[in-house]
Amino acid sequence: MGAIITLCILGILLLYLGLFKMNKALLPVALVGLLVALGFTLSAWNTDAAPLYNGMVVFDRYALSFSALCIVVTALILLLSKEYFRNISEHIAEYYCLIIFSLTGALLVNAYHNFAMLFVGIEIMSVALYILVGIRKSDFASNEAALKYFLMGAFSTGFLLFGITLMYGASGTFDLGALRNYVTSAETVSPLFYGGVLLMLCGLCFKVGVAPFHFWTPDVYDGAPILITSFMSTVVKIASFVGFLRLFSTALVPLDAFWTPVLLTIVIITLFVGNASALLQSSFKRMMAYSSISHAGYMLFAIVVIGENSVPSIFVYATAYALASVIAFAALILVKRMSGSDQFESFNGLAKRAPWLAFALTIAMLSLAGIPLTAGFIGKFMMFNNVMGSYNVTLLVLAAINAAVAVYYYLHVVVCMYFKNAEGAHAGHTTMMPAPINYKVVLGVAAVLTIVLGVYPDLLLVLFGG
Amino acid sequence: MEAFILEKLILVAIVFTISLVIAMYSTLAERKVAGFMQDRYGPNRAGIGGILQPLCDGGKFFFKEEIIPAGAHKVLFVVGPTLAIITACISSAVIPWGQTLTIGGREVVLQVADINVGVLYIFGVVALGVYGIMIGGWASNNKFSLMGAIRAASQSISYEIGMGLSIIALLMVTGTLSMGEIVAQQSGFVNWNIWVQPLGFLIFMTCAFAECNRVPFDLPECETELVGGYHTEYSSMKLGLYMFSEYINMFVSSALMAALYFGGYNFPFMYELGLSQNWITIIGVLVFFLKIFGFIFFFMWIRWTLPRFRYDQLMNLGWKMLIPLAIANIVLTGVITIIKDTYF
Amino acid sequence: MENIVSNIQGIPLNHYIIFCSLIFAIGVTGVLIRRNVIIIMMSIELMLNAVNLLLAAFSAYRGDASGQVFVFFIMALAAAEVAVGLAIIIMVYRNTKSVDIESLSKLRW
Amino acid sequence: MNNLFILLLVPIVSAIVLCFVKNAGIAKWLALAASLLEIGLSVPFLCAFTPDASVQFEQGWTWIASLGIQFHIGIDGISLPLVLLTNGLVPLIVLSSFGKSYKGNFFALVSFMQAGLLLVFMALDGFTFYVGWEAALIPIYFICALWGGGDRIRINLKFFIYTFFGSLLMLVALVFLYNQGDTRSLEWDTLVALQLPESTQRWIFWAFFLAFAIKIPIFPFHTWQPDTYTHAPAAGTMLLAGIMLKMGVYGLIRWLLPIAPFGVLAYSNVIMVLCVIGIVYASVIAFKQQDAKRLVAYSSIAHVGLISAGVISWHEEGLQGAIIQMVNHGLSVVGLFFIIDILQERTGSRNLSDLGGLAHRMPRLAAMFLIILMGAVGLPLTNGFIGEFLLLKGLFDYNLWYAAVGGLTLILGAVYMLRFYQKAMLGPSQERYIVADIRGHEVAVLAVIVFFTLFLGVWPMAVLHLSEASVTNLLNQIKF
Amino acid sequence: MESVNLSSTPVDYIPILIQLGVAVSFGVLTIIGTHLIGPKVRTENKLGAFESGVQVIGNARQRFSIKYFLVAILFVIFDVEVIFMYPWAVNFREFGVEGLIEMFIFMGFLLLGFIYVIKKRALDWD
Asked: C-alpha distances in angstroms, A405 versus A267, A295, B290, D24, D163?
């Protein structure tokens, strides 16, 4: 809880720093605040995890680990923001503040134990993002993305709420624990409850952006400023998944015969739609958007087959995915700053101009593709393992096919960087303008972490008492 | 059940008539007060001392030509004033006019409806009031009207926050949302809420002025700038309805202030004089109306005393003065109440 | 409270459920078929209000206040959402001079 | 001193160091030194190895404790020849690139790949094996795509995705196996002891087989191979053909046979047919080739077809033949590709119709070429002979007809290889080429290859006695 | 205080409906009445928009200052926050000191937002 309170105060503090024209202090203060929040999160690690505040939130290890991940990823993203926001607009403090608030919402979603907190968390997270997506006020794409995100977000919230309502109508509670009691003890679960589960599934699928509820994702990810896209596709996505998993693993497991087929269908559609669409993209950013859809499909594996391994596997997968995404988007920011485009072509010849950047991006892509010795592989292995636990061989083979397809578009950017030469205006540049130090730090940290986790994943897994 | 409905029907009819009559005569009173303040007579031709003047005005409204401008949205143009008068008329439903009156063995409560969320009801209805103005102003397709309508909307929502916050402090004292309860608690004289909520009352009153679009907050219709504002294009009885609704609003807010802060029908020594219940009730009603008239007079007094605000002053007063003050009032009330409860 | 509960319970629960589902469905349909952004937003509000109503009904039936508290949360956050949404729509309108969803076609799905 | 992990560590360290070396001159010497050090380090293993069935020099650490995954390496008679082959060929490949001006990153990739290959050959844990398997793929992809020619991007992407898809299937199978049994483990011992039901073994077989078959490549899965070989840089081709395809064969022997014996049994006829078709088909195609590199590429398909058939034949001779032939094929194919590279460098073409009559201008090359060629064809007293003989013997024991058709490989191989030699070296001399004979590092590389070609031809037991016990043990281990 | 009548039945709302009915009929009847009684002489000038006698230029339904919009948004937010206080205020004594502190924290955040809005000059009309 300390983390959430810290972040609330931090957000307001940032807002007021901006008010008093202390823009230079924004980033350091934000990072220190995140550090404090991380400290709170980690210090609660060994305490008893009982639901707090009348069962509203629970800070078990599950919540804490994901909270820590979200905080770390946010810190990495904020490190990238130094010049980024300044180029967009003068309201820098507000953006920091909104990101922090969004993170607060994410933490709340991580730790909810009552639907009220799930709803509040999701809303805090999303409402802040609606604004962030549209921070390029005069950029039409950004406007459009903001509007679409807003409409879709609000729409899906409606589904989520109706689902919650029906479940409440059937069980008379919003509390996850009580809900579980209801599901396990009631002789016949009311049909209302089933309807509620379905609607909630729809709502949550909208939020995490899996097919067939994914159609907003590419547009929004594409239209939003890159930094915000990276935040959305990492922290927000992870938090939504955590909320998703918590609901199903805590309360709805006994009903798995009902929702597993539904979810299974969704997973398969997601994998194919995400991959097939990503294959066709000519823009790196859009490719990342679609790839995030297919990764959402992989992460759903952990929910389709809920078991003791679900949490660690989704955690490792999410970590790998988040790190790789941060690298990818950081690289994209740098490349776009130079070439003004987020097409694959602008990556041409990057290996010559900025070898280390290209190297880091290659690691990220390999990690996303799930090649061994990167964190992505461990995530994929654990996910596969998870599914295999219930002998879903067919699903696994489909996943393997998709993973092979995915390699194609992940390597596309590697191909551009290493094997193609820059043409046109940038051909003359033998070196790119050097990346700012903060980018170097972020890229370095993320790349090293990706490799280290790929080589020695026990660093993370030990958290879950393996 | 039938008796209950009949009783309420009669009560509604009486309340309705009274509010209409008061609204009508407020116009006369206004002019008379103006005359008094400006050292002149005011209307004095129709009837003795101009007593028939409102009737003449009303008649004139009816017989004037009604004009619906060519560019106006026909339906909304008519809906606007209708909505305004409806909301004005129904807000008085929860005000307790007096205690129970025993007529032929039947106890009649002099309150149309004693619902447990009376205060919220009033707020809800008052908030609706702005729609009438907004719709009418927009439908007119006139720049002045639109201007006036927007100003009205903006002003009324701004002051609604202050009003809500000031009421919260009052609710902390009363512990109930029922109008009947609130007034019943203020029996006698020392129990009046004004003694514990003076600041709240001031805020509430200011906001009430603004909600009624009365001078000094009558920017939506200031004739010197906006030529009547939202009702520039209105004529005949539709204009009349707007004016009616405004005066009824004034009447209702006066009643509200009297009921919430000045004890409503309660008067000093009401139980000590040994009067029978019916007499207490009748005197109470008279006292209540006396208080209402006092407030209406106050409204008019202010009108002819203070100049109109500028728009920025208006917004500044609402947002930067009243809201912080109201919050401070809540904090103060909370702290004092807690201290009082704990230590005394 | 008992009184109001018994009165609400006078109406079968199914009626509330069907009624609210209908409103919700109307909202969903509105979102899906209307092209004016403002109307879409209003449809979304309609969905939320269907939820509110149903929550209140359930809450009354179960004599459990938590449903009504939830309604508070929904209202508050819906307000925040609307505030942001309106701002976004204004921003879009300033750039495109239109509130038609069809005009948003720069990004293609 | 016999620490296998150090053997792995040396190439990794050298790869990291080489990453930072910009100077081409320093880089190549550094790379050579590292690979020679690696040989030096592997010789003690050969000496200390006792040729019995046991797994030796074992080393194991817990890798991912919570998943029960080990980092487990060790060597037995089957892997030792391949480890030695890898370590032996890498310096040759490095040396063969001395003529080019590769920078440190090239050699870094080669070293990294060497580490991956070694890991594959040493792995005794499925996870370790898979990691090595993929780790070897990344550098070769970069080597081929960065320094290759032709439509390298498309070709190599195809190669990568093709093989990656195969390995994903293997991953699926591994994950499945991981979930079998009482303890979660991917240890080789555990997996072999699983005794899965036959129906399960059947699909496990296909999952593994596809991964290996694509890598080897066996007939219908070979389509990536000729293009990739042709357009890769010489060193890349050598790595691919010389060592990497052995990963597949090794996988068949090490993992497929013991884990899914019933699967092998059930489908061995199918596989055999595929192998045999591959042999004939590739030989015929090779005969029609004008591009020398393509010719050798197809010949390679034919050879590995025979090797795979030998493995599948399930006889000691077949397996022994497969092992020695892997070594032989590695040697000869590296030599051949190097020779082609030399020819191309000198003449600017590797098209057979452009070449001719080079023998008298390059006598040393011609001689060495001939010996290596003989080895590839499988003439007695060269290394290829004993390998092919054993393979055919195994095949013969399995089924006469397969052996008969498989035997064509000898005849057809002789035909297209000799045609190659004749077109390139003999015949009317093309006056427009001013070519110098081989020298320096070229001689060194070829001389080593020639030496081993003859050495193994004379004394094949050098390899065979290493693996004999292990192969027998493997065959005994498999219970039907 | 003992006789606090917290219950409210739908019957209590019937008088309100009655009053609503009366009000609606009054409004509608008046409108219809004037429509029937008043004279109708339409001229173009009379039906045009009134702009103090000046020639009408353009449509009246045009964009207006963003400030009004800002006020509207702020109202929506603050008014909803105020709603949260009603239940608290009514039951204020039961919640005691703890409730008071909690609400003060809530109001503190509200106030911080409010100060931010003022500092950002969102409410300044120039």
From this structure: 16, 13, 85, 37, 12
